[in-house]
Structures are given as C-alpha cells and as structure tokens.
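Quick one: co-fold with 3-methyl-2-oxobutanoic acid.
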Amino acid sequence: MYANPATAPSRNAVTVPQLHARKRAGEKIVMVTAYDASFAAAVDAAGIDVVLVGDSLGMVVQGESSTLPVTLDHMVYHSAAVARGLHTALLIADLPFMSYATREQAYASAARLIGEGRAAMVKLEGAGWAGDVIHALSERDIPVCAHLGLTPQSVHKLGGYRVQGRDEDRAERLFQDARSVAAAGADLLVLECVPSALAERITAELAIPTIGIGAGPHCDGQVLVMYDLLGLTPGKRPRFSKNFLAGHDSIQAALHAYADAVRSGVFPAPEHSY
Ligand code: KIV
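Sure, here it is.
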C-alpha cells in the first residue's frame, strides 16, 4: 500500500500496544503537553514518548481562566500543528468540554481529532456516563485516554482546582471509577491531583498504564504542562510541577532533564505529591 513518507507514521513511532508493554516491563512513560509544531519537534527530539494536546491550551495559550471555552475547532487546529512537528511520539488530543456528551457527538468529535488533527488517541474526562462513551469509542478501535481525579472541565461542580479523593469515601469512589473506565476499554488513564497512596492502589489494580500529574511517584508515567515544566506559570507554582529549565541553558536540555527524571524515578519527589 502506498504511504506518503511525509505523513506516514515513522517506523519508530510509539504505539498504543508499546505503552501497555512499558507498564508490564515496569518502564516509566514520559508525557508532556504541546500546542504547536516547534515545541512538538523539540519534544520528539528529546525522546519523550507521548505528546498531549491538552485543552489546557485554553489557559496557557489563549489566556482563559478555565478550559471550558476551548472548542473542537481549536483542538483540531492545534493537534494538526503538533502532528506536523512529530515523527516518533504518540499524539493524544483532548476532547473539549461538551464535545462528547453523547455517543454520536463523541464519534463525530473523535473522528475530527483523528482525521484532521492526526491524533492517535483522544482523551476525555470522567467516569459513569463517560464510561459509556469510552466503550462506544473503543469498540470502534478509537484509543481512549481516560482522565480522573481533578477533572478541569468539572471546575464549577468541583468548586475549584483542588486535590480529589482525600477522604475514604471519595477515594473508594475514585478507585471504582478507575476500574470502570479500564473495563469500558480505556487504553490509558491520567490521574490528576490525587493522593499518592490512592494512585499507587489504582496503578497496581489496573492492567492499563496510569499517567500522573500531582498523583505521586507510583504511576506508570508522568505528564506535565509544557509551560509549567519551563517555569512559565504565572503566580504561585503548582505543588506538582517543577521548573526543569532552572539550571539548564536550553528548552532542549530542560526536556531531556524532565524525561531523565521521570525515567529514573527522581521526579516526582515527595514535595511534588499529595
Ligand atoms: O489539558 C491538559 O493539559 C491535561 C493535562 C493536565 C493532563 O489534561
């Protein structure tokens, strides 16, 4: 079959089955967000495994106070830009707020992120009703990354950006949610701002890899927002992030330092965890 070498996946491209194999082998997965081709190319050159075009772009690129104003058109635009910078890393794109409220919407939105945005996997927030959507997409061979814990698209319901699953009842609910999204067919699970002990329990229970952000050192991988990693966060640094540009003289060196720190288990340290 003819494949255009400019757009065909490279022979070394990271795949979904490889991420599952990494978990089984106990090898950490490194993920970071990117929103344009230049940063994507830098991430790829640093040997980072997965690039997430997060709807965090609403906050760090567009200057909004939440991810809620981000549209599917925005996500498709940024995902396609990132895809042009990548050869090796696996590309995940976020399904934005209310773009997957029904199965039909989810099919149409995921088709755009994969077809036009060139993503290999889509990410969505929540369990329960979202489990139904995960099942529907994965049945059609669309890889899905679930996202639990602090789910920014629920900021109004949660009442702010804070650690989730701190008390016993909520921790148990989150644990059961994690089991349910995995059973629904998710290929990956992002755990955001949950206590380390809970993330450790979930990671031990699930066959799919967990990727933590503010979820302690026991997850199968870590993700950071690029701008946090480069120390560009305005105001107080979130506890879970680290400025990897400090002590390095280039973005490339900072990305290498982040990847090394995750792979060697040095990051996140207890001071980055809850
Ligand atoms: O949108 C995003 O960047 C994310 C990460 C924080 C995991 O969802």
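If it helps, The pocket of 3-methyl-2-oxobutanoic acid is lined by residues 33, 52, 54-56, 94, 147, 190, 192, 213, 223, 225 (CB under 6 Å).
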